[in-house]
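Work Package 3 (structural annotation) set out to generate three-dimensional models for the target panel prioritized at the project kickoff. During this period the team completed the workflow that converts sequence records into discrete structure tokens, so that structures can be stored uniformly alongside our sequence database. As a representative example, we reproduce one entry of 627 residues exactly as it appears in the project archive.
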Amino acid sequence: MRKFICISVALIMLVSVLSSCSKGSLSVLSSVDEDGNFVYSITRGKDGVDEAEITSKKIRTKVKENFGCNISIFLDSAREDFDGNYEILVGDTDREESFEAKNRLTNNRENSINDFIVAVINDKIVIQSESPHMLETAGDWFIHNFCGSLDDWSKLKKGYQFIYEHKNDVTSATNFVDGKNLGTFDLVLPAKCSYLVGMYGEKIKDFYKQYAFMLDNIEDIDEKQTNEIIIGDTTREESKAVKVDGDNYVIKVVNGNVVIKGGNDLATWRGAKAFLDEISKLNEGVGINWPEGYEICGRYDAKEKGAYTLNWNDEFEGNSIDFNKWGEYAGMAKETEKSSLGGLKCWQTPYGETPYPQPEKLKKLIYASGGNLHIGTQRVNDIDFVGGQISTDYTMIFRYGILEIKSKLPPEPCSLGYWINQFSFSKANYGFTRRFGGLEQARICNAGVDIIENFGSSNSFNANIHCRWTNNNTDANKTFSGHYSLDGGQYATKGNSRKKIYNQTRYGGDLSTDYHYYGMYWTDETMKFIFDGKAFFEYRFDEEPMGFAPFQLMSHFITECQMGDISYGKIYNTETDGDYYEHIIDYVRIYQNDEVCSQLITAWPQKEESGEVKVYYPEHPVSLYDE
């Protein structure tokens, strides 16, 4: 889309200045002070998007090169505005002129998502757009027209204004619902929901971007908007008015709004897919025109091509742990280390095994009760701590799909993680290989994927990906190893941050006071990390630093609850922190479909020597590599 827009803009660059509206005849200032600084400085927002920073630096470079002077870049928070403060404002800033320019742009026409404005307002030159992806294009246009020379700069007159209107030539058809253009609707999701419900909110929004409409995403706790596309079981009255159960779904126009609702999460997913299929006919020049009361009914079918199915889950409805699904994580039950108080820190397995020298003093840290899995951590005495840890290491491995956990995190200062480990297995480890189908999965590199790590916080958590490799050089008789992760860099930026901060003001409580949905969406192209049905971070495998290869290996799931670690999470406070806390899981589910090379294999309980192996996609390989 951006390349197409850039080409379109390039075609109008040469004539744009002549066709723009100039309310005055006086050129803007172009003086240079005795220190060689240009009269204008560049200002971007403290909380601005990455495109604002990139555009600001581009303008600075061209002014220095072509005007032979210096020009400064400031954050809007670095200095207060004043009369005679000549600035080039890039994107959203706290200056009134930035707000004014955006209002002019959005009021110019209904679908302005791919438009931009360059305007001289008071003592500011404003470069503004409604969407970040157009801001860099707007900056390129500004540079091309006004930064080539001081003669070009003189074309900027007081009162100058140019609005670029992106021409969308895909189709002249329109989708209407109750006489309203569907592209002007808002998307509404439950404040907390499965990603099966939230997934098509993203897809519908992406669909309309190509038609220059930006559908706002809101939640059912937000104020009611004029026209809405309401997905899932929300608190909206229109949603409550639609009754549906089981695998059935309904798409219905209620009070001028579109309601998409299923009897369960998979049915809602199928209904939202059906809705996108309907509105996507616009690509063929066919628009919908649904009146009030219009209704489509359908049914989720697990056998349908591309349908998601629930392939592995535990709802913890009994009063005992299902050891067909769970066991200990590798050799962690034997590991010990020093605690933050100078004593011992170690683990208890779901079998109750522990290296702690006085196990009789321990509670049962991992147990099922009341429809939940409880994983506890205990301060045993003044200096010793024991945590609980559980895994599918020997019972289930998978590749691709939606992994979803509904849970309450433990209170502070407890640390918790949901993570998957990828690994190689070969004939050298015959027992393990036999357990999962007898096929090899050899690879010199693998990954550990942190779906969440809370580092002792009950108000925030991080996602991360770690890539580790070992390469045996037999000629040199040496072993080389290394490690990458997503710490820092572009993955810490606001636009695609791997850190999620829970908004206590908006939602109330913290992550330990109520259940939330945590998870990941994994395909052969991407990993998205999910909170309450919405993606908060995405890593695409064609991006650096790690590339594609490690992320197709079979993986197992691990989680735990701990405190008292000497270097991980919050330091235990003997004055304020308690002696026992729990992490509570309502369910763990893995949904998969056959559109990518998904795989899931279950084996017999960890403590048993043999049993039945089940391969969920026998037509798909276990290993995607030959080497």
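Residues 1-25 have pLDDT under 50 and may be disordered.
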